[in-house]
Design a protein that fits this description.
Layout: H1 6-13, H2 19-24, H3 28-32, H4 42-65, H5 73-76, H6 83-94, H7 104-123, E1 128-137, E2 140-142, E3 152-157, E4 159-168, E5 178-184, H8 194-211, E6 221-227, H9 235-243, E7 250-258, E8 265-271, H10 275-283, H11 291-298, H12 307-314, E9 318-324, H13 345-361, H14 374-378, E10 383-388, E11 392-397, H15 398-459, H16 472-507, H17 513-545, H18 551-568, H19 583-611, H20 626-642, H21 644-647, H22 656-675, E12 688-697, E13 709-716, H23 723-729, E14 734-736, E15 741-742, E16 747-748, E17 751-754, E18 769-776, E19 782-788, E20 794-800, E21 804-811, E22 814-817, E23 828-835, E24 842-849, E25 869-875, H24 880-888, E26 893-895, E27 905-911
Parallel strand pairs: 3-23, 5-6, 5-7, 7-9, 12-26, 12-27
Antiparallel strand pairs: 1-4, 2-3, 4-6, 8-9, 10-11, 12-13, 13-17, 14-17, 15-16, 18-19, 19-24, 20-23, 20-25, 21-22, 21-24, 25-27
Length: 915
């Protein structure tokens, strides 16, 4: 707020005549009595910051942490959804332990689901048909090329799924229009999978019980697909779409997933047709979904995929993709446990889904199934969606959004053009200098926070010491980002102030120097505020051009502050002296933008922090500071985007020093907590992701066969060295980059190894055989290769794409991978195979060499020679030396599983180019 003395200036500027001409008519004594003090109260600034912090946390808590009360079976009756019943299914499935593809535990999980379905059949409505199909998928190959699947062929065999179709008994045509609800029963080998995805399976069972009481009034059937093989490359969804007769009847696909455990299950993918998300918005009791998450996921920033990709790309279906995203640091580790399922999480998803299915099931306007219309392809008719406080969901079409965006952009440009034309040269220079303040704000905010990212590995044994205590990020990165943003903007403010002081002194020569200085400060403040409008206008233009769904946030951050400024502050008259910005302008302008974005921001930061546990897809391939830099950049961007208006209020206040002291103290305390080890980077409940693998290596230095060499390998997908872990384990481990490992799907450039007792726990008969059976060396060279994976039904094979143009893979007479164009990544095409206990283990390949192959991969230095084929076979067996290491593994570590990582016993073999 301005000092009382400001009132004198306000009276002067309120006259109808231009202030400068009016003052020229005053006596010199009256001019000398004009006093102006441009200063805002520190308490107002403090109150604004407190309001922002408290309001942001309130929005996040209400939007993401406010869960419905869990209900019991008696409360909901036959037709409702009960979390108490659902949690019993989760308990039963998690008690089986890890149940990956090919395990006995997975067979038990399938039997449990079948028994639960039989119970549902016994209590279903008499006018409803319940069909159950234990579907055994024959061999198949997933040739998708998008996202994570570039350069890969995912082959599967001997997979079992459960299909459950519920339809009205006296409306047989309903079975030709089905809604698919899908999730997977299998887990990775390292976790019992309470979140991923026993919670999803349990919700589906309770939904099926509820739907079986309502479906007599449906116009369509509901298919619940409990698939297996998802964790090995979306194989369950692929086999259903390509092999099951029910797949032809599906019109809408709903996928339930988890990349954490607990919290709200929100929509993070929808479309391409908008019918499903529009229906969900109308039906859901507690809607949760953000197109921001969809934009991030589809950008490739999150290296993951779900069954929804199969349903969209392969089957051409539209629908919804849900996921739990709380506690994402426990994803695919031992800590994906039942105890982390927050009460109300299952009730939230279940009630939303039941309401959606009841509305969708009675609808007569389901999509055709194939999203092939031109508008769907071009993205012009897709939906933009977001929820407000988890209570209301807003959905509108991209076409309507473009019209709104274009209108706002044109009006904004018109206003800016008019303003600059009337302001003349001075206005254009002021705009340029205020834009400079924006650039300096971004540079300093990023510079300060990124500097911390480089410092952390030097003061802590873990480069990401905030995993178990995410609140540390506020001090470690948030405080430097805010300090940097203010510092950069203040430097720009001082440059702008210097220019405006000269300009005002020329225009108002009769004003006292003190008044001229204060007028310049007020004008500079207003230009900084308007620079924030320009920042968001540029982002809206870019977002509109590229049809980015989350551009609605740029619209909100532009329109509401601009409206508040235009309504309470703006004037197009250059002759009028600047007035102080009103605090109410900030309150009105920022209330809606913070309401729409603050909860999302905290949720995304929390997800990003948790994802740092598995940042290293190829351990040792990235510098230790990379994860910190990514997080620092994200937080710095948030500070610059959201605080640009608020920071403009500080420069003419006495709050500058308190702000600097507060941010420095917050950073210093956080850094001291890290350096002194007050809180550990990892705990038993938030563990570091590691892998312990007994490796039997048959490749040799030149890719040629040698006597088996074995060792125990320890590596981590979490950034940082393993020195502390190895000291805790003992067992003769050596760490470094001296012994890189090629696991075909990824490489370990930094790891630890030990030869202690490594020659026991495996047999010569376990070693896979890969050999050349026939080689025709002519203009069209063809090579026949046989592969025997012995005891393994999970393996990966790399084919050198520089030498081999095409190939064919067979299981006896059955063709698994046909001849045809193959994509490649980094010069390799990867076959990734997984199957059940009865999956084949002997294969034949025909390699068609490139016409002009020149041994591109054959280097003069034999140590860098790339083989023609490289094979890894996996066995889910814990050998005695591996068991010893696992028993001594620190409690803050956990095995980490994914489709491309080896199991606890892996065999490596290869064929050189010059075989």
């Amino acid at each position: 707020m301005c000092d009382k003395k400001m009132r004198q200036r306000s009276k002067v500027s309120a006259q109808s005549n231009p202030p400068s001409s009016r003052i020229r008519g005053e006596s010199s004594s009256n001019i000398e009595n004009v006093v102006l003090v441009a200063k805002r109260s520190n308490y107002v600034i403090l109150a604004l910051f407190v309001l922002v912090v408290y309001g942001t946390w309130y929005v996040y808590q209400h939007q993401f942490l406010n869960l419905p009360r869990p209900l019991g079976a008696k409360e909901v009756g036959k037709r409702g959804f009960s979390e108490h019943e659902t949690i019993e299914h989760v308990k039963a499935l998690t008690q089986l332990g890890p149940h990956p593809v090919g395990s006995d535990a997975l067979d038990h999980a399938l039997q449990y689901v079948l028994q639960a379905i039989e119970t549902i059949k016994e209590t279903t409505h008499w006018e409803v048909d319940v069909e159950v199909d234990l579907f055994h998928a024959k061999s198949g190959a997933n040739l998708m090329v998008g996202g994570l699947f570039k350069g890969k062929t995912l082959v599967y065999s001997d997979l079992n799924h459960i299909g459950l179709r519920i339809s009205p008994k006296y409306a047989p045509e309903a079975t030709e229009n089905a809604i698919l609800v899908s999730s997977h029963i299998d887990t990775v080998f390292s976790t019992e999978g309470a979140g991923d995805c026993s919670s999803c399976v349990a919700v589906m069972l309770e939904l099926a019980r509820g739907v079986s009481q309502w479906a007599h009034g449906f116009k369509s059937a509901v298919i619940f697909l409990f698939n297996t093989g998802e964790e090995e490359g979306l194989n369950g969804a692929h086999s259903f779409i390509t092999q099951h007769p029910w797949s032809d009847t599906v019109r809408v696909a709903i996928d339930l997933e988890a990349m954490g455990v607990g919290g709200k299950s929100g929509i993070f993918q929808a479309g391409p047709q908008p019918w499903a998300i529009e229906t969900f918005a109308l039906a859901a009791k507690f809607p949760s979904g953000q197109i921001v998450a969809q934009d991030i996921f589809k950008s490739g920033a999150i290296k993951s995929a779900t069954d929804f990709q199969v349903y969209q790309e392969l089957a051409g279906l539209s629908g919804l993709d849900f996921a739990y995203a709380d506690n994402t640091a426990v994803y695919h580790t031992k800590n994906d446990k039942l105890k982390l399922l927050t009460p109300g999480s299952l009730q939230h998803l279940g009630e939303n889904m039941l309401a959606f299915l009841l509305k969708a099931g009675t609808s007569t306007d389901l999509p055709e199934g194939k999203a092939t219309n031109s508008r769907g392809k071009s993205g012009q008719d897709t939906a933009i969606y977001f929820d407000i406080l988890g209570t209301y969901m807003v959905v509108f079409r991209q076409r309507a959004a473009s019209m709104i965006y274009n209108s706002v952009i044109l009006q904004s440009l018109l206003i800016w053009t008019t303003s600059l034309f009337m302001g003349g040269y001075s206005a254009m220079v002021s705009l340029a200098l205020s834009s400079l303040s924006l650039m300096l704000m971004w540079i300093c905010a990023i510079g300060f926070s990124v500097l911390v990212a480089f410092v952390l590995p030097l003061v802590s044994y873990s480069p990401i010491p905030f995993i178990s205590s995410p609140w540390l990020v506020v001090g470690l990165f948030g405080a430097p980002a805010v300090l940097g943003a203010f510092t950069g903007q203040h430097v720009g403010y001082l440059i702008l102030l210097k220019y405006l002081t000269k300009t005002i002194s020329r225009r108002n020569v009769n004003l006292p120097f003190a008044v001229q200085d204060d007028l310049a400060k007020l004008d500079a403040e207003r230009w900084l505020y308007k620079a924030g409008l320009m920042q968001w206008l540029v982002l809206l233009i870019v977002g509109n051009f590229y049809k980015i769904g989350s551009s609605y946030l740029a619209l909100a951050w532009l329109v509401f502050p601009a409206f508040a400024y235009g309504f309470l502050e703006a004037t197009l008259s250059p002759a009028r002296l600047p007035k102080p910005l009103k605090t109410v302008t900030l309150l009105i302008g920022l209330s809606v933008p913070f309401l729409l974005s603050s909860g999302i921001i905290i949720h995304l930061v929390a997800t990003l922090i948790g994802s740092a546990v598995r940042l290293e897809r190829s351990p040792g391939s990235n510098p230790e500071w990379l994860g910190n830099v990514i997080l620092a950049l994200f937080i710095a961007a948030i500070a610059c985007l959201t605080l640009v208006y608020l920071l403009s209020y500080i420069h003419i206040s006495g709050a500058k020093v308190p702000l600097i002291i507060t941010t420095c103290l917050l950073f210093g305390i956080s850094l001291a907590v890290v350096q002194l080890g007050v809180v550990p980077p990892f705990t038993e409940d938030t563990a570091r992701a590691v892998n312990v693998v007994h490796v039997v290596d048959m490749t040799g230095a030149n890719g040629r066969k040698q006597e088996p060499a074995s060792h125990i390998s320890l590596f981590s997908t979490t950034p940082g060295n393993l020195v502390k872990e190895v000291e805790h384990i003992g067992e003769g481990f050596t760490c470094g980059t001296d012994k890189p490992l090629d696991f075909v799907t990824f490489s370990v450039k930094y790891g630890c190894w030990s030869d202690k007792n490594a020659n026991i726990g495996w047999h010569e008969s376990d070693i896979p055989l890969i050999r050349v059976e026939n080689d025709t060396k002519d203009d069209n060279r063809v090579t026949h290769v046989s592969i025997d994976t012995k005891v393994s039904t999970r393996w990966t094979l790399g084919i050198n794409a520089d030498e081999v143009e095409d190939f064919q893979l067979k299981d006896g007479p059955e063709e698994l991978v046909p001849i045809g164009d193959k994509s490649n990544a980094d010069g390799w095409h990867i076959i990734q195979f997984s199957g059940g206990k009865n999956a084949p283990k002997k294969f034949s390949m025909i390699l068609f060499w490139a016409d002009n192959h020149t041994h591109k991969s054959h280097k003069k230095d034999s140590n860098t020679e790339q083989p023609l084929l490289k094979l890894r076979t996996d066995v889910d067996r814990i050998t005695s030396p591996t068991e010893t290491v696992l028993e001594k593994l620190p409690q803050w570590c956990s095995l980490f599983g994914k489709s491309t990582s080896p199991l606890t016993l892996a065999f490596l073999s290869s064929i050189p180019v010059d075989f």
